[in-house]
Every structure is written in structure tokens, then in C-alpha cells.
Design a protein that fits this description.
Layout lengths: L20 E8 L6 H9 L17 E6 L3 E7 L9 H16 L2 E7 L6 H11 L7 E6 L6 H18 L3 E6 L8 H8 L20 H17 L8 E9 L10 E9 L5 H5 L4 H18 L3 E9 L7 H6 L3
Parallel strand pairs: 1-3, 1-4, 4-5, 5-6, 8-9
Antiparallel strand pairs: 2-3, 7-8
The structure holds guanosine-5'-triphosphate (GTP).
Amino acid sequence: MNASSEAAGAIADAQPGTPHRSGFACFVGRPNAGKSTLTNALVGTKVAITSNRPQTTRHTVRGIVHRPEAQLVLVDTPGLHKPRTLLGERLNDVVRTTWSEVDVIGFCIPADQKLGPGDRFIAGELAGLKKKTPKFAVITKSDLVESDTLAAQLIAVDQLGKELGIEWAEIIPVSATEGSQVGLLADLLVPHLPEGPPLYPDGDLTDEPEQVMVAELIREAALEGVRDELPHSIAVVVEEMVPREDRPADRPLLDVHANLFIERPSQKGIVIGPKGKRLKDVGTTSRKHIEALLGTPVFLDLHVKVAKDWQRDPKQLRRLGF
Ligand SMILES: Nc1nc2c(ncn2[C@@H]2O[C@H](COP(=O)(O)OP(=O)(O)OP(=O)(O)O)[C@@H](O)[C@H]2O)c(=O)[nH]1
């Protein structure tokens, strides 16, 4: 996939003699802290999936920030939380594995909410890491608060670091939606990367397989449709994406076959809706997003299937890609 890489305020030319740096950063934080939105703002396109529902990021989506002097690969992890199901445990494992592999960690804390047990849980885990990876405290959603509230949050985060023995490399407020300080954050992260050549070709935004991104777009639309009824019971698998045969070159069509899995037969009615209206809306909305992502007209064939209690069943989890 290609796109302009100027989102994070790319500088025109690298300084002569400046070594090229490349490496990985990840954002951690409790659900809804703004990690995906920040990743998107840094990269400048919709790669990670955002929604106002917590815990929507299941897959490790990488966004890539290209600079003349550096390449910053962003790994977007699911929110770390106290596990209640097997899925929860797997997600936490993913987070810890990610932490041990990156060059710099950004701990996202929303400016508009007081530090809570969720933040302390994650900060405690960060403090306990054996590897001394540099840690940034990123105060997200700075646009939502007045400057005195923001200042109080900066102090609280500084204090939290002192209490737990974390030495923040920086404490930086950002607003991903307003683009405020997003470029500066990239500037500050880059010096923490090791010297090395670019890891990905210029222009790449993510190496997430397209099918996974398409599945995430469908799941996002499906979640919006059912609001509070089925928060974490939906999984989507794209079975096949094939160009339709016998189409004129100037009018291509991509056939996308996807299954939307729910946990119980009783949830079918909620997803499908009266006279199939909800499922139709999910199809229409996600098709638009898929077309925008892939740049081609799409025919979306979407089926609802029951995968009994998939969140608790290791075999089902593997089949659904976890
Ligand atoms: N006003 C404002 N809202 C933001 C900002 N960043 C994120 N949000 C909103 O906060 C909500 C959560 O953002 P996400 O980026 O999905 O949060 P996340 O941390 O990736 O969430 P999980 O995937 O659940 O871990 C969304 O409704 C965003 O629109 C910001 O800078 N300003």
C-alpha cells in the first residue's frame, strides 16, 4: 500500500552525516486510551481500527512512519487488562511479547481521566520489565481539557513514575485528533531507535495482511451496529478475496467472502436485525471502507455463523486467527 508519508511532519532532507535509524515502538495503555488513533495520526492514514468501544484492537497492526533520516515502525497492541477469559490471557501475552521486542514504549494516558487502577496496573507491569527499554508517557486527548487539568495530569504521571521507579524518557501531551504535538512525538521517539537501514520499502504503511485489515473493518462496522448488546462476541474471518472474472479492465470488481462469527445462536437475531436490516447496514458501511482501503469496487458476501463460545475455546480461537 502506498500513501504520502508526511503525516508526522517529514523533513525534506536528512542532514548530511546523520546516521539513519530504524526500529520499533509500541503504544500501551488501558482500553480507549487513544493508542490506535495516535498510530493513525502518526502514519497519516487509517490503519489501526478505532472505535469508541474498548478493546477493539485485536491484531498487532504496524504503522510505518517514514522520515529521510529514520523509519519508525509502530506496533499497536491490544489494551492490557485483567484477563477474564482465555482470549484475555492471549491478548495479554501478545502485549508482553511486544514489550520485550520494541526499542521504545509509549504509555498512553488520557488527559481527561484521572489516573486509575487500570493505569497503575499497566505502569506496574512496565516497571517490572527486565529490559530497560526507554519509556515515554504520552498524555493523549489533550484537546479535551483546559491547561490546568493538563498540567495536573503531567504532575500526576511524573509522580506515578517516581512511585514505581520508572524514569520517563519524556512526558509529552498530544492530541491525535487535532494533530497537536504528533510530529514532535515522532521527533522525540526517533533518537531512541538503533542505527540501521530502513526495514520496509519507502511508502509502505503497514505489513498487516490485507485480509486481516478487511476483517477488522467488517468487525468495526458490526460492533457499531449492535452497540451494548454484544461487545466482545464478534469475530470476522475473510475466507477469500478474488477479482471477479470477465470484467472489463476499466470496471474491476473484487469479490470478498467473509464470515461473521458469534458465540451463541441467540445472538444471530441481534446481528442480523429485523428483516436483515442491521446486517445489510454492516455490509454497506464496511464495503465503503474496504473500497476506500483497497481502491477498487467490492462485492461483499457476508455470512453470520455461530462458533459456540469461541472466546473460551482454544481450537476455535486458533481457527479465528488468535
Ligand atoms: N478528542 C479526542 N478524542 C480522541 C483522541 N484520540 C482518541 N480519541 C477518541 O478516543 C476513543 C478511543 O480511541 P482509540 O484510538 O480507539 O483507543 P485505543 O487505546 O486504541 O483503544 P483499544 O483499541 O480499545 O485499546 C475514540 O473514540 C477516539 O476517537 C484525541 O486526541 N482527542
